[in-house]
Amino acid sequence: MKIESTIQGLSESLKTARTNQKIIGLVPTMGNLHQGHLNLVREARKKCDIVVVSIFVNPIQFGPNEDYDSYPRTLEQDSKLLEEVGCDYIFAPTVEQMYGNQPRLTNISVSGITADLCGLQRPGHFDGVAVVVTKLFNIVRPEIAFFGEKDFQQLAVIRQFVRDLNMPIEITGVPIARAEDGLALSSRNGYLSEEHRKTAPIIHQCLKIAEQDLQQGKKLADVLANIASTLTQAGFVIDYVEARTPELQKIEEFNQNIVLFIAAKIGTTRLIDNLQVQHNA
Amino acid sequence: MKIESTIQGLSESLKTARTNQKIIGLVPTMGNLHQGHLNLVREARKKCDIVVVSIFVNPIQFGPNEDYDSYPRTLEQDSKLLEEVGCDYIFAPTVEQMYGNQPRLTNISVSGITADLCGLQRPGHFDGVAVVVTKLFNIVRPEIAFFGEKDFQQLAVIRQFVRDLNMPIEITGVPIARAEDGLALSSRNGYLSEEHRKTAPIIHQCLKIAEQDLQQGKKLADVLANIASTLTQAGFVIDYVEARTPELQKIEEFNQNIVLFIAAKIGTTRLIDNLQVQHNA
After folding, report:
1. B200 FRET partner, CA 20 to 30 A, in A7, A124, B64, B94?
2. Above 90 in pLDDT, residue A17?
């Protein structure tokens, strides 16, 4: 495994692979890797000849009051994990390497599906994601890129701009990795106090109960209200509890496959989770 | 020479070239080709192994009151010209092929340099250009793409988003092709009445006189005012007469290399032209 910190270095490293028609896979991350990320790499390892993992805490996808500065940077530990799981290249550029010292004038925005859920609380977030992912795609030029389903809306946004702009890249979503108690793995779980860490799995429990309730015929609106009240009672401050189609369209009733979405704060930590619920007609 | 009308057909045609590491050049056009376009193709022929010319009248770069419907479509004649000049593939997709039948949610915008010159009169125009050029880049995946300097601002916008998004493509600008009387070649010249066609070269004459005046020490503001009054007297309705740096920054004095820009209507036809003026320090 090799660590590249410059675009030019990475391009030269990948030149031979490209000449030899190797299938290149990209796993974009912000580092501080957990089993969720490593599952993405394992999936890439299965499908690709060359696996590139990018580690870059992207400033332009953080809001002014978000955790850009404090976001955990753990490159040494990440490298060990990636070596074990079979990554070929880590691409770990600086902010200057990615954004240069000339002002960036170009923006990529996806309308509609970003005006909702995390897009409401995080204006500009998905533009920042679209720009950095496009840059990484153009730098690495992978055949396949891998993203976690935990960031379900992000995955939908990426699929959308890839389709709209004819990017020659297959987007693969990988299921959420969870702790034994059900908590969706996230780098931000590291912010939780011991007490809040014990409370956090309630999010997933709510989703599983909601799934059962829906499949037993309870009304969608009641099920969502039930999640909200359980979480509030447990000390969460709710950002949203919503149901959408897998394409993120609003839905009034449980009459097709849907996705349940939760975003909620406990203490100062914002957690998100989701669950795909099958409709058995 | 082969004409492809589908993305898949073109991809398959280019597969062998790509496998064999051929250098692919792209000349994006809206068809109705003249010597200006053919110069782009000749330049591509010199630098590339495989030359692709796209012919696509892109609806999303036209404003609601512009000439999308009446824009000349002359594929048969274009094909003959391209065959003579050494094009390998024409890519001539339908609107449906390019934009599908699902709504497009993704936009690419370049700020700053589009808020000026043609951007003022044509809101959304450069977004439409950025989107279609990005799509064509992703479909054709050329090493080099060729654009005319007549659309100087468009060229600057394309260079900007290519740099900002790390697109792995070299952008080559090609000088303006002119009729013997100096009129910059343009598909829109075909809209001119016989009388207006005789008047139109005044635009270029004004630019050449302005260049002389500047190099002889006349004040920039006076030179621009002089162009405007000459054109108005000749029957033009001026959209803009401006001087900018080659990076499109505003400028008060002629104290470095600059570009003079004119956009003006004669009858119902809007013409644009520009001239790069060297500053000999």
Report:
1. B64
2. yes
Residues of A in contact with B164 (CB under 8 A): 104-106, 131
Residues of chain B with CATH 3.30.1300.10: 187-273
Architecture of domain B2-174: 3-Layer(aba) Sandwich (3.40)
Residue B37 is among the residues annotated as catalytic for this protein: yes
- ipTM score for this prediction: 0.96
pLDDT average, residue stretch A253-267: 97
Domain B187-273 matching CATH 3.30.1300.10: the answer reads yes
Whether residue A135 and residue B166 make contact (CB cut-off 8 A), yes or no, is yes
For range B121-140, the mean pLDDT: 97
Which of A90, A166, A94, A160 has the alpha carbon at shortest distance from A130? Answer: A160
CB contact under 8 A, B165 and A109: no
Tell me which residue in B109, B135, B168 faces A141 most closely, judged by beta carbons: B168
List the single residue in B with minimal CA-CA distance to A110.
B106
Distances (CA, A) of B269 to A215, B67, B205, B237: 64, 10, 18, 10
Which pLDDT score, from 0 to 100, does residue A280 have?
85
From B252's Cα to the closest Cα of chain A, the distance in A is: 22
Written as six digits, the tokens of B152 are: 């100087």
Over the stretch A116-153, which tens digit does the pLDDT of each residue have?
Answer: 999 998 999 999 999 999 999 999 999 999 999 999 99
Residue type, position B253, single letter: E
